[in-house]
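HOLO CASE FILE
Compound: glutamic acid
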Amino acid sequence: MSGNARAEIDAFMNKVKGNHPGQPEFHQAVQEVIDSIMPFVLENARYQQDGLLDRIVEPDRCILFRVAWTDDKGETHVNRAYRVEFNNAIGAYKGGLRFHPSVNLGILKFLGFEQVFKNSLTTLPMGGGKGGSDFDPKGKSDSEVMRFCQAFMTELSKHIGPNTDVPAGDIGVGAREVGYLFGQYKRIRNEFTGTMTGKGLSYGGSLIRTEATGYGAVYFMENMLNARGDSVKGKNCTVSGSGNVSIYTTEKVLHLGGKVVTIKEYTEKWGGEYYEGKRPWHVKCDLAFPSATQNEIDAEDAKALVDNGCIGVSEGANMPTVPEGVEIFMNAKIAYGLGKAANAGGVAVSGLEQSQNAMRYSWSREEVDNKLQQIMKDIHEKCAEYGTEKDGFINYVNGANVGGFVKVADAMLAQGVY
Ligand code: GLU
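Model generated. Tokens follow.
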């Protein structure tokens, strides 16, 4: 990178940190993208106009609201809730809802920012957004979760719609929560539309949506390995996490002839090791699938993976590797598929769910799976287009960030300054 690019990046990041104080995850997500796109922007004067970079890191709007609900004993609780509508240059806002005690505005801005580039990469017309609450569904009864979801949607329903903003699930928001949220939306607005994705199959959900993030992460790994003349077949894999992403990552690894050496249900049946509450990165493996949450791989973990011979990482979670860890992967020149490319299969099938809802039609399992495979292949190609280095090494970080940026930036430039 030229000295000029470095200086521009540092000045830009100082401004971002000043404008968004106390939001380290958001700074981390912006830093990664700006590191990739600044050299490209400096070479392409078109992208230096109209305050484009300043506008792209600033959410269109952030909605903050109180959610009050009563527990089964009749006691009242208050949670804080958010929807970050980040960018709708290429389509209506799209992105999940996270219910977890760690949720705050900075976390949702990081996730919303990632979503803008991820959604652009899917090839589908989706803008980026993210929302959620510090509510913890763990340990709550179904009726408590229902009352919380109803109270949450009573406010959120004012801000979303099939052509405006289409939420879905994320950590803590699965089929049960989406059902309650969709039910309340329908009740308030009296309309049956595809305003939420991740819906149940009996009321407009898409086949393969539950599996999509995990399957997509493995398809992406297969594409990365194929580009190196290799494949998932016969490889030892570690998978972290205990939600949908890790379950369907495991299923697809097995389907493609790989072996999973760490995960609960699988190890109970087939042997191997399960580390309760621990991260599995010190276990020897060929391929790693981080599928839990942000910053779950620190620099030491990354080093252990590389030292143990790991040749590929495909991130089912959002931003699971700290920046120093990413650097270790890049220096080792392993196949490193960052989250916004590798886990885009989830939101891609959400986009396919929106299409099916708009057509009032549903595609078969095979049709959706074929489209998902094609989308992951297209994302890989886009990364290779913008990220192939002189020695042939594909830098997926630069490829995904620049590839995702160009489409959004062109749309923003075409639509004028606002
Ligand atoms: N939460 C998922 C993600 O991080 C899916 C979002 C969606 O389906 O809208 O991409």
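CASE NOTES: The pocket of glutamic acid is lined by residues 94-96, 168, 170, 197, 318, 346-347, 350 (CB under 6 Å). The radius of gyration is 21 Å.
CLOSED: yes
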